[in-house]
Amino acid sequence: MMMPTAYIPGQRYPAVSITGTRCSLMCDYCRAHYLRGMHPVSSPHELYKLARKLYEKGAKGLLISGGFNSRGELPIRPFLPTIREIKRDFNLIISVHSGIVSRETARSLGDAGIDVVDYELLTDRVVIRDVMHLRRREDDFLKGLRWLMEKGPPYVAPHIPIGFHYGRITMEREALEEVSALKPYILIFIVFRPTKGTPMESIPPPPVEDVVKLLQSARKEFSGEIALGCMRPPEYKSSLDEIVIERGLVDRIAVPRWQVVRKYGMREVRACCSIPKDLMSLFDEGPEMEVA
Fold first, then answer.
1. From the candidate CATH numbers 3.30.160.390, 2.60.40.1120, 3.30.1330.10, 3.20.20.70, the one assigned to the domain spanning 5-281
2. pLDDT in tens, 126-149
3. Can you tell me the distance from the alpha carbon of 63 to that of 94, in angstroms, rounded to the nearest whole number?
4. End-to-end Cα, the chain, rounded Å
5. Phi, psi dihedral angles at 159 (to 5 degrees)
């Protein structure tokens, strides 16, 4: 049985929101809830100060995220010169949750020295229009991904959201086909998680067996590594996680339960699950020996 690796970012790879707790998009499944768990900054100067502080505390990398604007973009352009300085002064690995990008932004992200872009690929117009409140098309997401892979940072990690069409799996297979044709080094799946305080809090997530079927298709069609990302319902961290481990459907699992890590003797990497293999030695913890 192939044993996937557990990715647990923690203090070695903290997440930063460059918009604090603000988000213009306010998708129905999130409503900026997940920004509250990130380190907040509101200016490039604050980002530099925070990066230095986190570096001095032992951070080896940063995930830069935040709320999106009304066009589904992370407002990162004013921060790019500072990110270049952070790379120069602290040599941190930088990944960015970018949202939709233009050709120019894709090139600018690469020029700033960013290592990894985490990119969510949406191909369901109902999710784009009614859940995310975006006046964008599926093609905008696809073009952004292609521009990133052609002109952007060296590593682009497409994420396919599962079940965000009110708990149903709809266009995810089409997204899988698009990603498979582009042949990135990794493909990450995230699963809709009903979140308290959002309009979708009472909607059930997609059935585990349907998620498993999609992952089985991905294993057959996609040539790179496959990861189960950090967003998924808490109860799936035992049921879904154990199924995909037993069936060899993924190579990486983000933030699994400690009981699962211990049961399977999983190797731990203290970083986001999109970290490429040639940077992994900075974060590798080896097999888990104790339960915290």
1. 3.20.20.70
2. 999 999 999 999 999 999 999 999
3. 6
4. 26
5. -115, 130
